[in-house]
Specification:
alpha/beta; Rossmann fold; eight-stranded mixed beta sheet; two-stranded antiparallel sheet; 8 helices; 20% strand
């Protein structure tokens, strides 16, 4: 397995951008030499970074056990959308430039069905937005506790429970808040347009805790997908907006996918006490 810290000069942001990558090279997976790798682009939440994944999630083992490359970009708290006024194209970076760069540098599959976008909170909404917008690239979307804020922030009386998420902050990210609806910043509009086009949808998994402050917006988007007849999986389970909910549901999202999982191996040293006189070791069909 290789853990890589990398940067490159981005045309989308006109500066260096940073990302971390995990590649399952030299793993004990029996087909590890079979390239190219299936890949997930994993988006962090607000105030997070590409390095934060290593402290909270067992991604190293997950990469090896599933022969999966994991790419984790930095997002600068910009909700993975394009800032047209400043020319900071964070959405274009995630949806196209980073994919192109990593495919050129690493042995990654270019197949849509092998390319996944996922994220948590701000990254969960970023995965939905960019996964729908770039549905020709991403075959799967995993959205955990998504911060679907665009339906509320245009309200002059909107107040977030996070003090730094002010109206001015959202205007610096999304531009004119009254112009979000019906634009490519609007996941409701994106899903409607994709449905109208007749293009195949990515597979979609969404999960949110029943006690999460974001559950109401998540339920509403789930209902919207149902109204459009878009097949997707939605988990509303006990929990709030923390890692105790994030990690198991992120892994549940991966469990839905056809990954190259390490096969279950027999344990040749298993002692079957029900066989023999108790003094003889027997190999059984038990597994590790």
């Amino acid at each position: 397995m290789s853990i890589i810290q990398a940067s490159f000069l981005s045309d989308c942001l006109n500066r260096k951008v940073h990302f971390s990558a995990i590649l399952p090279v030299d793993s004990f997976y029996p087909n590890a030499s079979a390239l190219p790798y299936k890949t997930v682009y994993l988006l962090h939440g607000y105030t997070g970074s590409c390095d934060g994944w290593f402290a909270k999630y067992p991604l190293r083992n997950f990469s090896m056990m599933n022969n999966l490359a994991i790419i984790m970009p930095n997002a600068e708290n910009h909700f993975y959308v394009d800032d047209m006024q400043r020319g900071d194209m964070h959405g274009e970076l995630i949806g196209q430039e980073l994919v192109d760069f990593t495919r050129n540098v690493f042995p990654l599959s270019t197949a849509r069905e092998d390319t996944i976008i996922g994220g948590i909170s701000m990254g969960g909404s970023g995965a939905l937005r960019n996964g729908l917008k770039c549905s020709d690239i991403f075959g799967h979307i995993i959205s955990i506790s998504p911060a679907i804020v665009t339906e509320n922030i245009a309200d002059p009386g909107y107040k977030s429970s996070t003090p730094t998420l002010t109206r001015g902050f959202f205007e610096s990210v999304f531009g004119d808040l009254n112009g979000i609806t019906g634009s490519n910043l609007d996941i409701y509009w994106l899903s409607q347009e994709l449905k109208r086009s007749g293009v195949e949808f990515p597979s979609i998994y969404i999960a949110c805790g029943a006690n999460d402050r974001l559950i109401y917006e998540t339920r509403r988007f789930h209902a919207h997908l149902n109204e459009l007849g878009i097949v997707h999986d939605f988990d509303e389970a006990p929990g709030t907006h923390d890692e105790l909910f994030f990690e198991p549901h992120l892994m549940r999202g991966f469990d839905r996918l056809d990954l190259d999982r390490l096969p279950v191996m027999q344990n040749p040293f298993w002692v079957d006490s029900a066989v023999g006189d108790g003094n003889t070791y027997h190999q059984s069909n038990a597994v590790l």
